[in-house]
Protein 1
Amino acid sequence: MNIVEKILARASGKSSVSPDDVIFANVDKVMMHDVSGPGVIKVFDKLKKQGISVDKLWDPTKVWVAEDHFVPSAEKISAENIVQLSKFTKKYGIEKHFKYGMGQYGICHTLSHEEALVMPGDVYVGGDSHTNTTGALGAFACGLGHTDIAYVLLNGRIWFKVPETIYFKINGKLPDHVMAKDVILKIIGDIGNDGGAYRTMQFGGSCIDEMSVESRLTLCNMTTEAGAKNGIVEPDQKVVDYLSSRGATNVPMIKGDTDSEYAKIFEYESSEMEPIVAKPFSPDNITIVREAPNVELDKSYIGSCTGAKYEDLEAAAKILKGRKVKIRTEILPAAISIYQKAMENGLLKIFLDAGATVGPPTCGACCGAHMGVLAKDEICISTTNRNFPGRMGHIESQTYLSSPMVAAASAVTGKITDPRDL
Amino acid sequence: MEPFHNVASIVTPLDMVNVDTDQIVPKQFLKLVQKSGFGKFLFFNWRFDENENPKTDFVLNDSKYQGSKILITGDNFGCGSSREHAVWALQDYGFSVVIAPSFADIFFSNCFKNGLLPISLDQKIVEFLQQETTPIHVDLEKQIIKTNSKEIPFEINFHKKKILLEGLDDIAQTFQLEDKITEFEKNSTIPSVL
């Protein structure tokens, strides 16, 4: 069995499972945020009317809640939304509620790894499509709708059809200035928006072995943009060290069998990779940066679960150090722990010296919620994950998706720029 | 959840691929305190201009499609965020069937939690149905779509079909078996994971 089959077999108490088997899995961790949490409250209300008991959760210690989409509250409705969420977590005894403005908080997917909330081998479900991110720790991590989350909260289990796995073997070492974001954009460009639909996307090969955990998180994060059920990387010592340094003890290890089977194997040579952008209005609409349209950018956005981990900020700082931005540039570290580390290591000073603005951790403008959304006809280069029409603001605004290095280089020139050409 | 009833309706053709959930219900309508129906927010940015007046060139604003219960659209419908509001909005607006060549995973799953029928059909058949100007009949029991000239069979998982026909979502179904589950759990040797 490959790693996903092993995780799902163990979670369902079976000796083995195969793709297309339907299994009933024990869930290890559940996440909700300030959009899916209220969605779950609505489902609970509906169940209650049907006479179903929603008085207590299966295990509130396995549930955690993040405030990330509509914080800081921009208007009264958002503020009220957070109040309702807090009432919910208090009522059900959910202690892991990461509140805006109270110690560690940040984007839900970022907290999953920064706070070592998910372990290798876990079945982890979240009320958000980018839950796939955390598969980089060697977990089976996928997003669910509100009804499914409500079900898991009450029962601790969920049905899955075991997905078949497509394997991306990436060989060699990435050239300087080429990041994991470029790799995943290239893959999405090749297989398309639904190229991973209903399947697992697994990443391996010597490039992945050498890659940091944070880069692997970027890869798995955007498996969602290929429609994948989940993304995964087999855990190794790097994952153990990463989680241990964040307070985890006895980090378990799980790997696929040596005769693991995959529905398809795609092979890539890292040395051939280049900085890439996805043009409006789809993540699979890619081009290499040196052939990107010569558009006048209005803004550079370095944020989100995809592109504002510590390593992403470090990469942006490398480019921005000693330079000045020519367009509005907003940098939003994805969690307070990252913000703090960026402060301690001088990255914030580099950003401010370059003329950029540093904002609080939030999903913010990535989903067009607030904190710097785009006006009609504005064009943005962004380290985020989606560029559908209106994603970051006005329906007639445009977003180019890129790595943090490309977003930083483009901030300096005001045009879509390969960092090697600065 | 209401049981699914057979539908006879003209079709609303939305000839677009990769329609994501933020087009179906834009993010600004996702906050809890808006309790009123989500139907009025459906395809909001396509339906309304900046002053919230209907855009005349958008298909839902065309009077000939008023009252339509069947949406026909392109590949990968419902991609993007996992928000279940997308299904709620389509239903609240009045759709009970969505036909497309393919659907995004989470959206597809969410449909069955709420009684919306997603039908996946070959691209050519979808194109044919988009041209249909007289009402078509969707018979879930028989798994057939009838037009004036054709009978088109469609596939659906047996279990999912049962869910829709009986109006029992997964939770309601499972709770019907609560006695058996409790008994099984008492005798179960399933290990807790890790």
Note: The beta strands of chain B are 7-9, 11-14, 70-73, 97-100, 117-120, 136-139, 144-146, 151-153.
Protein 2
Amino acid sequence: MVNAGKHLMTGLGVLLLSAILAVSCYAMDYPDEVEIDSLANLYEAVVFDHAMHVDATENCSECHHHTTGSGVANDYCAKCHDGKEEMDSVACQDCHSADPVSPENLHNPKPGYSYHNDQPNLKAAYHLNCVGCHQEVDGPTGCEDCHAKTEAGEKFYHSGEFAPKESAHSSGH
Amino acid sequence: MSKITRRKFLAASAAGGTAIMMAPTKKAFAAGSFEGFPDGMGVLVDLTRCVGCRTCEAACNKEQQLPEPAKPFDDYSVFDEIHHGQKRRTTDKAYTIVNRYELKDTEEPLYRKIQCNHCNEPACLTSCFVNAYKKTPEGAVIYDSHVCVGCRNCMIACPFHIPAYTYHSVLNPVIKKCIFCYDTRLKEGKPPACVESCPQQVMTFGKRKDLMKIAHERIKKNPGKYVDHVYGEKEVGGTGWFYISNAPFEEAGFDVHLPKKPIIDNVKDFLAIVPVVLTVWPALFTGFHLLATKGKSHGHGDDHSHDEQGGH
């Protein structure tokens, strides 16, 4: 019983320490890997090689707009932001809502941000950013090049073990 | 006495005729200026974003509980399919489909999602003589398949060739088409399944009037990216679903020769005179006939008797 409590305390301590480290690492530097899993359903989570992309791009703002303090790539953003200051949050999901398809979210996702309308939802923010660039630089663009289909995904797409049988051909008639 | 009756009759039929002529014309004009329900929902489709993953097709299949497809939804060979000399079309088993178009100026193909565009003034609704169709205040064009008699007038009327027919059903063939997920989603203010499923947010869901502003803003904000046209803003009187594109719309298989006015306008003038022809003409010409023949028949009778008398 005492042992278990000790283990728990040690575990919590380690967790706290790693959390502090992670936060301070993040603030000073950037994570080498980001597991993008908040939307995983039809596809498995994506383990995003952030370090490789940092090397491959010239400026953080190519993906992070004006939030990382490294300038502004988009002319539209540059009209208000000079991009010299690092923002409190630089993660995609801090600004791009996972559920923005409601008409209420279409305009002014946050009050006061009147030019932040027509903001893509989180799923689209990822895909538009990734696929858009991958098309230009001949990176991978196939769905399963980045994330493997789950069983739910195969069922949804009627693929893999849920693929239509031969008899389905008659449906063409 | 008889003269007064005729005069009264003619006056009454003339007044009635004028009333009838005025009534449908007024109504028809009102129909022509209808720009959709003020809070009707719509979807902005940005073709520059579509990568042809067909997730929307799979989402539609699931949501509408449609039969198993002939090929998996991640099988991209469907883009090469040609049926009767045409690319794929919506069917009774697939209310939405994505087609691929090769463009003249770029190597990248363009993908276009096709479904019912939910017109402000639907031609299908106009053509349906059993009133199976309905444009709901939420913006959806829905239909009651229990009322449908399977005449297929709507298939001919639709400028986008959307309604499909259950040809395989021997006993009760009916029309099938996209209903904006009205029953399961739109009614509750939720976006249709295809919109929600799209990884690229090709489709943006909202009030039609808000989306129209966003469409024009997107064109303005990204100079050179888009063709300066919102397909569906004006076409056939405006559609609930409308498109913006980086390529000329004709290259993406759109019919760019559609009138700006609703399809009903083509027949409105004709339809307005039908009641006139059916009601005023019989009354008017009966009146003329009575006028023309009454005196004459008297005359004839008189002449006849005179002749007879003269002959004797």
Note: The helical segments of chain B are 2-32, 55-63, 123-127, 153-157, 193-197, 208-221, 264-311.
Protein 3
Amino acid sequence: MKRKHKRLTFVGLALLLIAAAVGLILSAFEESIVFFHSPTDIVEKQVSPDRRLRLGGLVEEGSVEKKGDAVVNFRVTDMANAVNVTYRGILPDLFREGQGVVAEGTYVAGVFKADEVLAKHDENYMPPEVADALKKSGKWDEMSEEMKKQGHVSGETPK
Amino acid sequence: MIAEAGHFALTLALFVAIVQATLPMFGAHRGNGLWMAMDRPSAISQFLLIAFSFGCLTYSHVVSDFTVLNVVQNSHSLKPMLYKVAGVWGNHEGSLLLWVLILATFGSAVAFFGGNLPPTLRARVLGVQAMISIGFYLFMLLTSNPFERIFPAAIDGQDMNPLLQDPGLAFHPPFLYLGYVGFSMAFSFAIAALIEGRVDAAWARWVRPWTLAAWSFLTVGVALGSWWAYYELGWGGWWFWDPVENASFMPWLAGTALLHSAIVVEKRDTMKTWTIFLAILAFSMSLLGTFLVRSGVLTSVHAFATDPERGVFILILLMIVIGGSLALFAVRGPALRSTGVFKPISREGGLLLNNLVMSTGCAVVLLGTLYPLFLDAIGGAKVSVGPPFFNSVFIPLTIPMFMAMGFGPVLSWKRSDLVQASLRLKVAFIGTGVAIAAAWAFISDGPFLAIIGLALAVWLIISTLVELAERIKLFRAPLGDSLSRLVRQPRSSWGMTLAHLGMGVAIAGMAGAGGWKVESIQVMKPGEKVTVAGYEYTFKGAREGQGPNYTIIEGTFTVTRDGAEIATLKAEKREYPVRQMPTTEAAIYSLFLGDLYAVIGDADGVEGGYVTRLYFNPLVAWMWFGTLIMVLGGVISISDRRYRIGAPAKRAAKKPTAAAAKA
């Protein structure tokens, strides 16, 4: 084999690998990308019950109900609309009424069945998606100054 | 005064770095020895200044000087001493100071041990190092000054994020940074080589120990982070493909590739351009990791809000470093001549395959991590790319590599024969077959992928051992002869054997914990029993207690199997009053075949019922144990004699120069 041919073998191998990667990526993208929705999005759009999605907003004050058997129901709101959420498990340490939350799961028959409720590593943190959802619903200005600050700057930590 | 002194030393270091980045570089260009000789004193003084500055900040934290803003925001008078010290880098500004301290340490190490480096190469390496320092000093002084004062002084501090008040996480950032910044050495050597227009075996021998050190540190850092997530987040998982985790994983992938390609440069004088590219890539990924974590651009499980100005600064820095180095690479790279030729089936071919898979994997992780960011920036939908994506793309890509990893070491350089190699590995083939059959027979449920993982682990472990046995002529020479061969193996061979064995053990852990985890969520009243994977957990009740700066609810579980008591688990839920923040401390008991894992949640209902989450995580501890073996391999490999004495195969190491003795 000439030097050029050998190089071609490797280029071919590299292309094969990249092709495999692209193929895998394309097939995975279809199924495994999760879109973010605000409560208003969910109320207004038709959401397929098969599709996993993320719901973000504030935990509505007074909406958290423990149903027994580790089931918790609560409502996530962007102050314009609210969505019922049900979750079975241990809520993240920083889950609190009136605070920002992101839940992942499916929306079936008017209830968001969460299988994951995301924890934040810092109590002063407002997920940017939630801040955006509030801005979109036009309710951002009604938020307290403290909360707005959380959407931008706050103490932070590595990792 | 202390804080001002620290600030002043930091500013002074900037000016020293400016000198170091210019004079030696020009000196090397013009052949002016006097200018070149500026490199070592300035690198060492940079280190002394930054060490002093870091000492000042540490002092402020230790004595809880609440006139310093950084201390007020991240410390509290009641915080235990370990976390007062760890708190120095448990925040944005302080962690940057740690970053530049490590950078300066590596720079001074070159100055110190670099006595036998060609003067022009050393001057250029240290010059490039200083350029990176300048970027970070400016970043700190302009946007993130750790020594800022607050007036009037605060009465007490706001405490450090309780999740970070943990021994595992106290040492996670230093190790991670030692890894990230360690790759700056390979980067500086690569840029210097591009300027010099020469890459040879001696160059590779210089780069490899630094890369090995960086890789070992990074491996420890990533493992500590994952271990922390495992026991502190209480989700029973150990890797979430979170952007911040990916940020540390990408440099690891690129660094692992670099580690392997540098071998080819050293031994076979080929793949030079590619190695230079990987050196640039590894450090670029480290910078990108810093950018992702420090700028708060991504929402992640552990994202923190931050100042947008900082993000823009790091982004510009990133573009200058990556863009500049790649431009230089494009201009000078093609001029590097390789002499070694090899066939696809050869040791070089195997190492190249490793490189290709590692870089493709790195690209996949990069794409998945940045895609949501990119889509958001162009005004598209908000999406998140999570574990399903990475698992279904990354894992299939690596399977062929792990298969090839068994063959690689038994192939000879230049050209080899796959059939013959397979014959030599027949024991490994048989062992793997038996393992698959056994797994199939005994484990009825669970994903097919986990069985593949287990088979790969067995394959890798046995083939690595077979290769070692062949090298020492086990069973083919008298036993004593084999043993003396075993002892006389070069340390770099030991490094390879251990690192590959460790990888095999770690894969077994990943397959077990990923594939056969058993989870059970329920409300438990005292005395209630739940059986998880054959282990019977009895909830003994919960009590309240007090820690140094937190209160606890402690739930006690006893675990029995077939009536025999195995362990008592005490899971905690802590509440830190200063930040009003609770944390979860999972109770873990490691058995040989898996971890018993219990988490206690909120009180639920009457009669002392609590939400509990119980797991059986098969083989999970193997993952960290395997990682430790890998790191041990890296460390042993660094101590190989040929890195200590600069010259290849020089038997008598009695060079009388001081630098050689120290190196």
Note: Chain A has two domains: 1-33, 35-152.
Protein 4
Amino acid sequence: MSIKKVTQHPTQNEELIFDRSQMGRVGYRLPNLDVEETNIDDILPQELRRDDDLAGVPEVSEVDVIRHFTRMSTWNFSIDLGMYPLGSCTMKYNSRLNEKVARIAGFANLHPLAPESEAQGALELIYKLQEDLAEITGLKGVSLQPAAGAHGEMTGVMLIRAFLDKRDGEKSRERRVMLIPDSAHGTNPASAHLAGFTVKTIRSTAEGLTDMEHLKTLCEEGGVAGLMLTNPNTVGIFETNIKEICDIIHEAGGLVYMDGANMNALVGVARPGDFGVDVIHLNLHKTFSTPHGGGGPGCGPCCCTAELEPFLPVPRVIKEDENYKLDFNRPESIGRVKAFFGNFGMMVRALAYIQTHGAEGLREATEAAVLNARYIGHHLVEAFDKPFKSDSMHEVIFSHKKQSRKGVHTLDIAKRLIDYGFHPMTIYFPLIVEGAMLIEPTESVGRQDLDAFIDAMKSIAQETIDDPELVIGAPHSTRIGRLDEATAARKPVLRWKPDMETLSKSA
Amino acid sequence: MRYIPNSPEERDEMLKIVGLNSADELFRSIPNDVQLNRALDVTAPLSEIEVISEMEKLAEKNMAARKTSFLGAGAYSHYSPTIVDHLIQRSEFFTSYTPYQPEVTQGTLQYIFEFQTLVCQLTGMDVANASMYDGSTAMAEAFLMAQRVTKRDKVVIAETVHPEYLAVAKTYTQHGDLKIETVHFDKESGRILSDDLDKLDAQTAALVVQSPNFFGCVEDLQILADKAHEVGALFIVVVTEAISFGLLKSPGACGADIVVAEGQSFGIPLSYGGPYVGLFACKDKYVRNMPGRLAGIAYDAKGNRGFVLTLATREQHIRREKATSNICTNQGLIALAATIYMETMGKRGLQEVAMQNAQKAAYASNRISEIEGFSLPFSAPKFNEFVVRAPKPAEEILAKLTNEKGIIGGLSLSRYYAKNPNDFLVCVTELNTKEQIDNLVEGLREISE
Amino acid sequence: MANILENLRYSKDHEWVAVDGEKATIGITDYAQHSLGDVVYVELPKVGDKLAAHDAFGSVESVKAVSEIFTPISGEVLEVNESLNDAPEVVNNDSYGDAWMIKIKMDNTLEADALLSSAEYEEYLSNNE
């Protein structure tokens, strides 16, 4: 038998687990049943039991599982491998210490319905994190219950709704407009919709800031319940007029919600509560470095003013004398947003992050993140179109304007970056910049890597002139090339089935 | 700060390169009157040794984590194979992001595809998404989906659905035009009260039933599916104990249109309530109304098979306020853990662990019912949880059991159902040994004497 | 340059209308399909639905975008093009032919006369370039 090695990746063809399955293989062992056995028909009559023998569920050994996932893992890019400059996503280092402490048995094995007196450590931890987040945001009321950023947003706009309903009574009906900039995350309007608001879009100025005149006009039209604003905004610029913006909304009778996705640009430097913001969500998986894990879990605490605090989700974690308690008696609360108390494991990690940094380290991280983005902006301003002149904060935005003349677009530049050993930046977001490339290096990147990234980007810009096809055909170094997403969406195949052809067409 | 690669000297040099004299100047665009201009009032930086010690101290106070426990009710103590936690800690998985760039995220996309398939197989459904936050939010999303699909505005839900799930659904729907009506349970069987099903009518978007229900009773899903379909409503099945899939007839086989479940039992630590993972599955014809991400097969120009996130036009980043949900981040890493769990246990393991749960719970319920003064109020078949009616208030008995015997004997139902102060819910899993069960029985006997 | 057929009427939302007595056939223009990119899904109304002019009667989806389709004229839906369910790519390949979307019975035939002629639509497009 001859071995033919023709693939560039050592684990090119790891099949689906269902194709690896062999009848009779086992990957587990349980202790023998130690109680006397009851006739199963006496426990559950046959008509309530499965009769399909779990058709299709694989049978594999422990070794099969280890190899399967280890091989698949090699197809992923990760923070630990290198710079992952996804703008708005804040791919910073995920400390192993945080992983370690979240796994301490006293946390990991604690049941959420354990008596409060038996779970004082967990409640104390939640309370401490609430206090720290209140200090960091300048907003006194904190709930850690929301499971992710969008969930925190939903909670936040529901607080606004509950507040207005109480303040205005029946007249609150006339106040259902949520103002959202055209540059906002898509979750903002989707969350506003869940709270029964209709959305009006605020234009951005040529400088990438909220158009103050348009904001005033929209407020004059009336019915304004509030504003959802990201700050620094999604093009990475601080809304310098933030105080005035908050004043305008407050004068119009509305409240200000801040999307805290970019809070990592402000920690230790400025606090939303001091701008006049009424409510904010944080992404612990961004600013406080809990791992993103291929798309979650997150944790999206909601922080608000004392005025909004009565409306926060139940139960609240409070301190009475030296004891920590769950307080369910909150008659004005919007209700629960999730079973139990939120993603506690993420709270442990976030608190460990805060403790490790301390006050000075938190500010240092903010400075380093902003400096890294500024450094990239400084070095790429010649090679790429930078649509806004203002100082960038933790992320910097470019467009493909200079390259698209040669037929090279943002998507191509992103894919070519992979060949240089970097994960692409966020592309085509926000929508207000055509062919947007949003680059967020975070503080977790050293100067050599920043320089290498800058060189790669400049090199791609040069390739666009010398050999555009090279860029358009990228990536050239990965296991698979660009996938036909249109066909995938027209005839979606969303699960394995026994009779399907799962190997490569060419295999 | 050891997580920041650049030294202060390097940062000073970089500041000069970008034309600044100090780090403070980085924040020129923030007006001075809104800058903090003081240090945050949080702890001073702690070393790794100190952080671990602080955390250990807090964890030590969680005495419940060290005690024999019979708590369930939506969060379960199960065996998790060692390799589950090992594999999810691979950098390539836990330090990657949502797979927006398929060429460098095939590992994530393929496991999502396997997760979707396994969820379909266990629930008996056609299509499953890449996960929701947890079971409770998955159920709330199912309500909204049923409303979209049927264009009707009423959901009829069994009173025996997890009370916290119902609370979450009420929060989600409070500003829409969806009405929620509850159906009572039968005091004898512990199952849904069929006489009360006349609440189903031509305005009903969905009938929602949990099985095993909050009391541990297994519902007759087939009959309920027919009742829902008779009025043109969808049938939504909620499962909080995913281990039951290994033994019970799948909701899909019983006629469910949407199945939502909590996947925590699949190898995920209790972790005081999260992060867990919501499973969400439905019939093919409703796929475009589903919330959340979906991975599907796609091919490159050379014919190589790969996976992509697909049908994204349902989602908030494209459809904004008209999206099927506001969800973005899901539970990727926890879905990975559940996938590894399901594959490691495999067909035989999922069956055996389910059987052991049912057997041990049967043994425990039989023994407890033999104690003078104790009874099992509900007659319906059960999986691994059951309600016990004590001769005294359950709070009192359980507190004594914890303090005197070091056993957490279950959950007093007075927290949710004030009418039955003597009832408590007991859960028995494969991790509870015969000795622990016998100690529980002895403890209850002594305390009630 | 987008293909524009002479014998059709056009709306500023990039729908085309073919009038045949009281009956009108509606689809999206070549310009519209081109700016959408690969069409992956088409959502259409039910036969019998009553539409008022400027109502959204469905949507066209590409991989990363959704566009609503508006009827430029009022009427009742007589027929919908079911074949687009299985082959949405036809919208890209034959937007004025096999990719017609709905046929309606017009409430008021004068509405069609008010639409853009091919020359006017061409001018409208060039002004928007």
Note: Residues 50 and 129 of chain C are 34 Å apart (CA to CA).
